[in-house]
Amino acid sequence: MLDFDRQTWLYLAIIAIAFLFFRWNSRRAKQNRNDRKNRNFRRRYEERKRENKKAREDLDEKSSGK
Description:
Blueprint: H1 6-64
Region (Disordered): 30-66
Keywords: Membrane, Transmembrane, Transmembrane helix
Transmembrane segments: 6-24
C-alpha cells in the first residue's frame, strides 16, 4: 500500500519534523504570552495593593490626628 522509495520517505520525515517543530514552537509562544500576561497582572495587583495600603495608612493618620 505504501510502497515509497527512500527519497519519498526522507521528504515525509522532513515534513513531519517541520510540522512537529512548528506545533511545539506555537505552543511555547502561547505559554510565553500567558506567562507574560500573568506576570503583568501580578505586578499591577501588587501595585494596587501597595497603593491601597498607603491610602489606608494616610487615612488612619488623619483620623488619629484630629
